[in-house]
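Retro notes (design track)

What went well: tokenization of the new backbones is finally stable.
What didn't: we kept losing track of which sequence belonged to which structure.
Fix going forward: every design gets posted as structure first, then sequence, in one message. First example under the new rule, 488 residues:
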């Protein structure tokens, strides 16, 4: 009985090892996209990492990196700048998202096998996180996304990243993800799944992409500069439109936008460009280059309250200007001039003037952009609020003494990648789609008791759009304001 039990255990162990071996994705592009010999591969990756020395380490927690996926001899030097930044950091898992170059399918293929092999060894897959991503996204595993043993060409966008992960983050597991057709739905679903599955975990997201393909060097430089600007500013809506249209900007635009959306869902974030290059650096022809980008998506501190550089006297002066401007214009038709010579009132600022009568809105107009010096802008906004607001008749001269004046001095607007980043009580809102635009000041949702969703819906209605336009491609921008009013 004892011998039988030992034999049974041995047979069972052998079967388990065989099953595990079958569940390990083998290296498919070693010798094609990167060095096949383990010692030479390790030396090559280590040299790239050692030579990647950014001028200064950017501040903030790294949430994602953007790296190229051409052959190491071409793009490895650029990719190393991102991996050198995260080298040795305590990430438990790296989720690598690359585009599918050869298999067309809907959604993403999330690999949940036991491991992923390269000549440097087998990296364990974080199967629990892979399954969590699958549940959160609804995306199924598509074997053809990773392996097609009978074909000469294999998917490389994920695999070329693994040797860098092995050398820079040797203790980390990975979750390989190949994105199929790069649609808005797939991108947004992947970002939401990452947010849900990776919460409270030490996860690094790697977006694998090259930039423009096979353009002359000068043309590629211009196209890539425009793309990098969109990435740096997290213009996710513009990027999605370009990706869905098939523009030659990034082969992995979907993974990049998913990473940006994920990072922004975690809180305020910014993009730091670490290096840009193209294939001509490695001896490729200038007549047809592929662009490369290394960048990091980092956390940043929550928006501080807008700097209130205006003193109590500055504010009182602006309120007097607003009241005087309305008094002069509705009484005598004269447009007041700002002759205060206050340096702070000479600085261009965005501003709104709100008029109320017995606590009810009587007019509100202003300028989002800094179109004029602050004093002049207040004068013009006050007059327009009194005479040009289409919701109300023009203010009559005898009404002016009973009006209450409120001024909002604005910060410059910035686009947000996700509606979750709009903060009631902190942000003003701009909703834009096509030629239609709606603006709501920060105090509006507070005064009306709106939650974020109602705020977004009201912003859409203000723009003349359907209330759910914020879910369907409308551009969202936010701004902040220093708000002050006359004392009763």
């Amino acid at each position: 009985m004892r011998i039988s039990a030992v034999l049974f255990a041995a047979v069972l162990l052998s079967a388990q090892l065989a099953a595990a071996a079958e569940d390990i994705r083998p290296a498919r592009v070693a010798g094609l996209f990167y060095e096949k010999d383990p010692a030479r591969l390790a030396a090559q990756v280590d040299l790239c990492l050692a030579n990647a020395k950014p001028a200064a380490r950017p501040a903030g927690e790294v949430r994602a990196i953007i790296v190229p996926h051409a052959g190491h001899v071409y793009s490895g030097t650029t990719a190393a700048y991102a991996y050198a930044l995260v080298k040795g950091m305590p990430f438990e898992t790296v989720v690598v998202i690359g585009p599918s170059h050869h298999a067309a399918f809907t959604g993403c293929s999330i690999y949940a096998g036991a491991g992923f092999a390269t000549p440097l060894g087998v990296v364990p897959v974080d199967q629990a996180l892979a399954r969590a991503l699958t549940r959160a996204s609804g995306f199924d595993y598509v074997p053809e996304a990773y392996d097609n043993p009978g074909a000469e060409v294999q998917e490389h966008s994920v695999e070329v990243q693994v040797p860098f992960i092995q050398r820079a983050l040797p203790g980390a597991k990975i979750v390989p993800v190949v994105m199929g057709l790069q649609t808005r739905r797939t991108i947004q679903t992947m970002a939401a799944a990452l947010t849900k599955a990776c919460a409270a975990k030490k996860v690094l997201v790697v977006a694998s992409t090259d930039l423009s393909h096979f353009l002359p060097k000068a043309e590629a430089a211009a196209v890539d500069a425009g793309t990098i600007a969109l990435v740096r500013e997290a213009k996710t809506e513009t990027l999605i439109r370009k990706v869905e249209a098939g523009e030659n900007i990034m082969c992995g635009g979907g993974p990049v936008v998913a990473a940006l959306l994920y990072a922004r869902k975690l809180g305020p974030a910014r993009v730091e460009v670490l290096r840009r290059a193209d294939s001509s650096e490695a001896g490729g022809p200038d007549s047809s280059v592929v662009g490369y980008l290394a960048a990091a998506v980092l956390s940043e501190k929550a928006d501080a309250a807008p700097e209130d550089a205006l003193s109590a006297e500055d504010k009182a002066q602006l309120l007097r200007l607003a009241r005087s401007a309305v008094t002069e214009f509705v009484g005598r038709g004269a447009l007041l001039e700002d002759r205060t010579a206050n340096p702070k009132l000479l600085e261009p600022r965005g501003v709104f003037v709100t008029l109320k009568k017995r606590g009810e809105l009587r007019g509100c107009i202003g300028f989002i952009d800094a179109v004029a010096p602050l004093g002049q802008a207040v004068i013009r906004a006050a007059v327009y609020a009194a005479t040009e607001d289409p919701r109300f008749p023009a203010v009559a001269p005898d009404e002016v003494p009973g009006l209450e004046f409120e001024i909002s001095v604005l910060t410059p607007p910035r686009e947000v990648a996700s509606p979750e980043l709009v903060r009631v009580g902190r942000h003003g809102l701009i909703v834009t789609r096509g030629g239609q635009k709606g603006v709501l000041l920060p105090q509006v949702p507070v005064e009306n008791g709106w939650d974020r969703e109602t705020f977004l819906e009201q912003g859409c209605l203000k723009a003349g759009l359907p209330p759910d336009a914020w879910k369907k491609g409308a551009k969202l921008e936010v701004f902040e304001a220093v708000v002050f009013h006359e004392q009763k």
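Added context from the reviewer: The chain has two domains: 15-299, 312-485.
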